Amino acid sequence: xxxxxxxxxxxxxxxxxxxxxxxxxxxxxxxxxxxxxxxxxxxxxxxxxxxxxxxxxxxxxxxxxxxxxxxxxxxxxxxxxxxxxxxxxxxxxxxxxxxxxxxxxxxxxxxxxxxxxxxxxxxxxxxxxxxxxxxxxxxxxxxxxxxxxxxxxxxxxxxxxxxxxxxxxxxxxxxxxxxxxxxxxxxxxxxxxxxxxxxxx
Length: 201
Known about the structure:
Elements: H1 2-71, H2 75-142, H3 145-177, H4 185-194
Helix pairs in contact: 1-2
């Protein structure tokens, strides 16, 4: 019994040791992976920094070489001056073109926005027109024939009254002017036409 307990204790100790080793190996692997990624990142940053410094140094060297060359009053320095002036002119033209391009893009954007607003307003107005026509159609369909006839009769009577009034006014004007309308064929035809009763037509 004592031997079995010792054997069990020994096996338990071995298991604990193995668990510790596995846990340590897992942690160590994670640490190594993180360290490699950090080192790669640092190497990339150092590489970029080195390239930037190299470019800056090359620019300084080229600038200094140009200054030295321009101090000499010879054909090469004159050609360099002309080239630099040409580059300046081109740079100015490019900047101006870019500015014009930006302004045109802004104007184009404004035109597109205005066009979109007009399109929406047109669609809204068209929808209102369709809705108005639909309502008018419904009203006409719902209106009874008797109501339509009554309305038409009232309108006709009103027109007859107005026409009769105008006839009377014209007759009074012709009569009051003292003109002998009977001797003028055109005027006579007008007077005879005015004497007709519109209501009886």
